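Researcher: We plan to redesign the surface later, but first we want a full-length starting point. Tokens attached.
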């Protein structure tokens, strides 16, 4: 598998507006994915009496499917073939899943945080991880 380093990463002064626009679109995409994540989380703990960590993880994975397609087409306008992008995306998502679920577990079980506040903190950590690595490795190819 070939990983191309786009020109915008070779010159640190080139493309700041593009990065800002991508980050904004990433936040919009993330808002939709997070809404789905939290909806599944809420349904899991309130409607299905799931363990809160399991509900959080299930919500994260649900949001990841929506996130992939929105990031591919909307945020990064990628031309990388899906057969390559999906695998890389889910490698990033899997790591983000462990960041999300692990930090949620630590905040709720070890530090006794309220699950909702812990979920916000876990989401913030996963968001930073996902943007940085999605931009650099997953969706770095552009349509011309």
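Model: Full-length starting sequence:
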């Amino acid at each position: 598998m070939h990983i191309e380093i786009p020109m915008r990463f070779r010159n640190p002064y080139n493309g700041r507006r593009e990065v800002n626009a991508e980050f904004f679109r990433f936040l919009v995409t993330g808002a939709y994915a997070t809404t789905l994540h939290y909806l599944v989380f809420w349904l899991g703990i309130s409607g299905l009496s799931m363990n809160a960590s399991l509900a959080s993880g299930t919500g994260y994975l649900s949001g990841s499917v929506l996130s992939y397609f929105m990031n591919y087409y909307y945020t990064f306008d990628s031309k990388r073939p899906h057969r390559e992008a999906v695998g890389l995306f889910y490698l990033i998502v899997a790591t983000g899943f462990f960041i999300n679920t692990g930090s949620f577990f630590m905040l709720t079980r070890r530090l006794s945080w309220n699950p909702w506040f812990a979920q916000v903190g876990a989401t913030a950590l996963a968001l930073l991880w996902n943007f940085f690595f999605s931009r650099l490795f997953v969706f770095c190819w552009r349509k011309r």
